[in-house]
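Below is one protein, fold included:
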Amino acid sequence: MTSSWVPEQGESHAALLDEPRRALVRAGFDAIVVPTHRPAARLRSSIDLASRTRTPLFVLCSGRAYKEAVVKMAARSGVEAYAADIPSGDPLRVDFRTSANDELAAANLGRNPDLSVKRNLGLALARLLGWKKLMFLDDDIHGIATSAVAKLAEALEGHSISALIPVDFQPTRRRRQARCFRERQRHGSPM
């Protein structure tokens, strides 16, 4: 036998709920940009991250990195990847104030650093393609969780920069370069 009695709810808590300020969407990046001078095999972590986050990968190559090798390796992992070989020298023909800084030049041990050129190319590409969120990833960073990528992308909602700072970061190369610079200064050696 069924009853005609219908339970009644007391005072509702519905008034305490708030509408979301923005739609809940999966936070992500339009692309992961990796400036590199290392061989394609050193990009396994970057390719893996692009695969796990389903984010296109854009690699700017110089030195021992070649676009064909990068694209081929990414394709084997099913990653949408694009790469460009960046010529040595000053392909942008832009003079940055930091390019003339003696301390920065010494820290690079006389090499022609093209990291800033590659990052600026990444920014220009993003603007041309209408990308709003870009993740720059150094080629020697690995072990990034997909949840960290989502948090970084989400942090860009309402902000122009978000950063992931490695806990165990040991800047041995930078310390070695700084020590070399100090030694050169102390002994009056040319750079």
